[in-house]
Amino acid sequence: MSMHREDAVPSGLELLRAARGHETSAGIGLLLGMRFEDIEDGRLTLRCRTRSQFANPLGTLHGGILATLLDSAMGCAVHTTLPGGIGYTSVDLAVKFLRPGSIDDVELLAEGRVVHRGRRTSTAEGTVHDAAGRLLATGTTTCLILRDD
């Protein structure tokens, strides 16, 4: 029995391109108000606006928000390289916080780029900039590719 294209499971790239320009509809993306922007094979950007609920005890942007944006952008960049039906999960996440960010309705831009594509693991790097173009944080990740074989 042959599988027709319309019966095929969409690739990671196809799934994410379908969400481009929209606020994500589930999970952490919905909670933070993330929107997918540029989506290519091995590269992805997303945007998010800060708000007062993102504050740390000092009143600046909580590092966990930046880490989550990096984890999402880098993981989704890996997802763009995967065929339909193949998942992934983060194995590690390293983040460098470079400067404090504002919680005053500032748009953040997170970018993830795949550095290595492997059969079992892929690695990616990422950045988060504020609306003025200042680099707030950088990160790296390794993702485990979830194959049945």
TrEMBL record:
Keywords: Hydrolase. One of its GO terms (molecular function) is fatty acyl-CoA hydrolase activity. Belongs to the thioesterase PaaI family. Residues 59-136 form the Thioesterase domain. This is Thioesterase domain-containing protein. The keyword Ribosomal protein does not apply.
